[in-house]
Amino acid sequence: MTSSGSDSIKTNVIGGVIAGAVLAVGGAVWAFAPAAWKWFTDLLASIWAHLTSAATVPTWWLYILYAISAAAVLTVALRVRAAATSTEPTFTDYTEDRFMGAVWRWRYAHGAPTGTWAFCPRCDTVLVYSYQRDYGDLKTTLHCETCRVDIATEPGDRDDLVGKVHRQIDRKIRTGEWKNYVERAAPAQT
Ligand SMILES: [Zn+2]
């Protein structure tokens, strides 16, 4: 039990020392604070005095500064105007192209083509599809009811055909080839 008694005395002594140290540091900071504050406000005042003091520079130097400022303002103004009046097409303007002899049209949802389907290149009728079996291999034929002609026959079903077109659209968007079609389809609008 004596050991526990001496432990508590030791704890009290350590606690007293820590409390004393905290008070000493706190007192020092308290004593120092007004001096530090005065130094800080003096520093701000001298910076302000420096910034507002008159400087003597050659007049040609002022003209250079004016010219640089005017050029900067003009550049920013022109950029803003160009951005505001821009008619640059984006890839979402690319909603039509020709694949496998048919005209394909689509729209975009979450950046991907959707609602993709084929139209007759001659009369613009929506094409109908039918399946044929060719020695067990499924083939899809696109047919125009108005012109009474088959426009294309491709291996696979309807989804395979649309998937093939989507891969071409994806390729042309990545390579930038889509711009050729958009510019050809919609002549420059100013
Ligand atoms: Zn047709």
Which key terms come to mind for this protein?
190 residues; alpha+beta; 3 domains; three-stranded antiparallel beta sheet; 4 helices; binds zinc ion
How would you explain this protein's 3D organization?
The strands form two sheets. This protein has a three-stranded antiparallel beta sheet with strand order 1-2-3, covered by helices on one side. Strands 4-5-6 form a three-stranded antiparallel beta sheet, with helices on one face. The protein is α+β, with helices and mostly antiparallel strands and 190 residues long. The chain is 54% helix and 22% strand. The protein starts with a helix and ends in a 5-residue tail after the last helix. It has three domains: 1-53; 55-86; 91-185, no CATH class. The chain is elongated. It has four helices and six strands. β4 and β5 (137-144) form a beta hairpin. The chain has helices at residues 2-52, 59-84, 158-175, 178-185; strands spanning 96-99, 102-109, 112-119, 128-134, 137-144, 149-155. The structure holds zinc ion. Zinc ion binds at residues 120, 122-123, 125, 144, 146-147.
Total number of strands? 6
Uncertain runs: none
Helix amount: 40-55%
Task: Count the domains.
Answer: 3
Tell me about the largest β-sheet: 3 strands, antiparallel
| Rg on CA atoms, Å | 40 Å
Sheet-strand content, in percent, reads 15-25%
Bound molecules: zinc ion
Q: How would you spell out the order of helices and strands?
A: HHEEEEEEHH
Mean pLDDT: 88
Structural class category = alpha+beta
